[in-house]
Amino acid sequence: MAAEETLCSARAELQRTATFMSLESVYRSIDCAISVLADLRQQLNNFAPVHRLPPELFSIIFTLATHIPRRHQDVFRLQDDRRSRDYVQPRSNRIAIIGQVCRRWRAITLDTPGLWTYINVAPGCNQFKAYLKRSRSLPVSLSLNAGVPEVKDALSQLAPRLSRLDLTITLLPSEEITPSIFCINAPLIRCATLIDTHVFLPMPRLDHDPGPDVKWIELFGQRESTLEALALALPTTWLPSNTFTHLTHLLFSCHSVISMGPSVLLTLLANTPRLEFLHIINLWYYNKISTLGAQPVTLNHLRSLVVDGSRWQSLCHFVARLSIPVRAHVTIVNTQAESLRGVHVPPLDHKSPVTNLEIYVIGRKLQVFARSEVLDFVLHWWPDDGYDVPEPELHKFFTPFTVTSFKLKLTDTKATARGTDKLLTELASFSAITDVEVYLDNQSPSLSHGPSYGKVLHAIAVGNICPALSHFILTIEGSFPVDHLISSAVEMARERASRGSPLSRVVVRSLSGSPYRRGLDITPEYVDLLRAKFAPYVNTLEVHHFPEPPMRVVDQRWVVGGAEKHWSLYEGAKPQFLGPYEWESAKPGLTTYVHGTNRIAPRSA
Q: Cα dist. 547→147, 235, 407, 506, 509 in Å?
């Protein structure tokens, strides 16, 4: 009440003396009134439930809301068009927005130095200086574009406190980024991304003489580096000579040196004993560089290897000299096989021959999963120009006659139809396949009537592909006319039986893709119809129906847990999955018909 009476008295006094006030006195009175209103609004805010929280809890909440890994997730966020990649600036710090909510929140943010440790503003500006002051003595992360003139001075100033550096070249010629910039003494640094956005472009054919030899430098003034993650994609003539005893993530572009040879890359990898994630962009060596003397390298902790764009000979020589653990994931993107001259063992067969093969085609994109006893491979292609499915020449990647299991999914577009003949020619050399699964869904309205699956089944029928086939699975997702496809499968079974190579087992599976795609109407009458069609030509017929699983999760076999700890992977490192969803979660309630007998599998606990 006393405050209200004081304000009323002040207002009455102002009204009484207003006519005698000078202009300067009016301005001072306005400033005073604004301050009083701000104090009253602050008091009003105190009645809000959120302001019952103590400042320490607010600091924790603000820190989580602006967590550093979230700030760096767009380091490699480049446009999808591989021919014109424009750099997208990482999202700015949101703490400034939080500080504008109210006076109390601003005071808390200013008193929480950990909120100001991520700096992505131009060095030398007032905001840069404010961040340095408010972060006090804590380690800082710095995100810079090399187009600003004060880069070297900023790095020298922050070196003792630098924990992360994201340096992107978009404006200056890369030649101006000299090694001396990175010879600063930064004992606390844990992550560095040094990239030129142009190195993400496809590598041109370079057959001329190589340039100067590589110059080896010590990054950040340490012989034994403290780095845990390093992205080095600068077209320079130098490479780090450090021993990276803590490094687990490495992204490396072979644009990084002018005279790239196999021994250069392997020498770098030999200094990374604990490497878990290796991503190589544009793996190539000059034609005139000898591969002799390149010592093999063993990476005992490697979990994922991605090669995005490579020359065939370079890939073969690199894989032949790299030893990685069993079940490590290997992804190879947009690599065209060339001559096998000088290549004694296909690159995917160095550890163990490939035995399982999955091929998925959607439009002009082609994806191959190849599995051996010890390694898993993902091969992915998408053409930059033209309209046809790529011709990868799979027999140059692994030995065809060791493959025994094959899975195929086609989306029947015009581009897919044109590529089917090429695919069948490729599969003709896979003579040891005994198990085949053909997967069909209704992504295209004309899919069940398209020519691609008919061509595949006809080739199997006449023995042009898979002459040793004994088990055949037809998987159908969604509800749509499949009579033509079923008839083609029956004709395939009949033709093989007439040629003396009958199928021992045929499985027809129906998958309910969603409440709106219920799958085939699997009834005893429909099973009897299928049995009548297949029974004369096969030993065993099975019909399965899978209800909709609790959750459909997109298969991301190439994304290994922990791969995105320091940055979100660029799109080349995790190509879109073209195959079907996983359905193992649909086993409870599975209905199975075997030659007309109906049994319900017991539900799992």
A: 57, 53, 22, 20, 11
pLDDT value, residue 154? 82
The whole-angstrom separation of Cα 302 and Cα 330 is 10
Q: Estimate the crossing angle of helix 103-110 against helix 23-45, to 10 degrees.
A: 80
Q: Strands 591-594 and 538-546: what pairing?
A: antiparallel
Contact 285, 260 (CB under 8 A): yes
Nearest alpha-carbon partner for 248 in 224, 223, 231, 262: 231
Is the model's pLDDT at 446 over the cut of 50? no
In the DSSP assignment, the letter for residue 202 is: P
Q: What is the pLDDT of residues 311-333, one digit of tens each?
A: 777 788 888 888 899 888 888 88
pLDDT for 598 equals: 37
Supply 94's token pair.
């949101």
pLDDT tens digit sequence for 380-414: 887 655 445 566 678 888 888 899 999 988 775 55
Of 61-70, 119-128, 483-492, the least confident: 61-70
- State the Cα–Cα distance between residues 499 and 487, nearest whole angstrom: 18
Sequence ranges of the domains in the chain: 139-300+320-325
Q: Which amino acid is at 11?
A: R
Residue 422 has pLDDT above 80, yes or no: no
Q: Is the pLDDT of residue 269 over 80?
A: yes
The CA distance from 421 to 391, in Å, is 11
> Are the CB atoms for 73 and 570 separated by under 8 Å?
no
CA distances from 117 to 111, 121, 144 (A): 13, 12, 14
Q: 419: pLDDT confidence band, cut at 50, 70 and 90? A: low
- Tokens standing for residue 7: 């304000």
Q: Do residues 189 and 163 lie in contact, with contact meaning Cβ atoms separated by under 8 Å? A: yes
Task: Find the distance separating the first CA and the last CA of the chain, reported in whole Å.
Answer: 67
Q: What is the pLDDT of residue 75?
A: 67
Own/partner pairs for 132-137, CB < 8 Å, 24+ apart?
A: 132/158, 134/110, 135/161, 137/113, 137/161
* pLDDT grade for 86, boundaries at 50, 70 and 90: very low
State the DSSP code for 363: T
Q: Shortest CA distance to 359 belongs to which of 403, 313, 305, 320?
A: 403
Largest CA distance in the chain: 117
One-letter identity of residue 218 = E
How far is 428 from 239, CA to CA, in rounded Å? 45
Token pair belonging to 324: 């990685």
Q: What's the token pair of residue 228?
A: 């845990």
The torsion defined by the Cα of 461, 466, 467 and 472, in degrees rounded to 10, comes to: -60
SS (H, E, C) 572-602: HHCCCCCCCCCCHHHCCCCEEEECCEEEECC
Please write the tens of the pLDDT for every residue from 566-604.
Answer: 887 776 777 777 877 654 444 434 444 454 333 333 333
Angle formed at CA 502 by CA 498 and CA 506, multiple of 5 degrees: 130
